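Open question from group meeting: does this chain pack into something compact, or does most of it stay loose? Before anyone orders reagents, we agreed to write out a predicted structure and look at it together. Recording both the input and the output here so the notebook holds the full record.
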Amino acid sequence: MSNLSTTKGGADADGEPALVDGNPNLQLLHLAIKEDRNEDMKICIEKNELIECQDEFGRTPLYLAVFYRRLKMVEFLLSKNANANAACECKTTCLSKAAENGDIEILRLLLLNGALRDTQNQDGESPAQLAERNGHFLISSEFENHDMHIRNEFVDAARMGSVDKMKRLIKVGVDPNIGDRKGDLALGVAIKNDRNEVIQFLLDDDTLIATPKDKRVQSKDRESKTALHFASYKGDMALVELILNAGGNPDAQDSHGRTPWQYAMRGKHRKVADLLENWRRK
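Structure tokens returned:
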């Protein structure tokens, strides 16, 4: 490690972060972050397990990295599962500090790692309000863009069969039943692309996905097609039956008034069409 010197300090938590008396390893870590010594910071974290260590003002290493706009450090700390919602003693969170700084790249990273947007500092200001007060008006639109971005990522993950990525995105706020920019839904995309592991996750997981199963299978994409439309067209008898048992509606109509039965017939799947017809008669 570089020959880092330490200084004493007691700056207010809202002002220039100062090194603190006490833990010398924490002092070295703070100085490494302040002076943008990335490798020194990593060594301090990995050797001394200081990932969530707070100074006397409640500042964690991640908070300081955000304060000093150290993008690479923020990336590293988040990769080590640093708490994205850490706040200093004045209740300013990492996200609030990034918004106040107008730092879009760091803000995006924090949001993707579960940073909450509805927090308030001790003056009752949210991250969005702090951004506006400091003239960072692009930050407000970034919050809106983030919602669409993670929905796009979620549907793409369904298309690629990445259940782990889908789980991570749900944890940071994605609603599985809302479509992407094109209006596609994850379940419909998974059925079209034969992503059975994704289909199973979306239909069976009740831990991460709070939405009732009937709502999941009845959600409609941009053309008002439900999961049952897609499964019927593919002729997947087992999946059609699974969706029906989960609450799928055999009378659901797409934007052209076509039902799953018609999709089954278009796909020349007579047995599936018969199943749908029998289900309607129940």
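Observations to bring back to the group:
Residues 212-282 form a domain with the Serine Threonine Protein Phosphatase 5, Tetratricopeptide repeat fold (CATH 1.25.40.20).
The longest helix spans residues 137-160.
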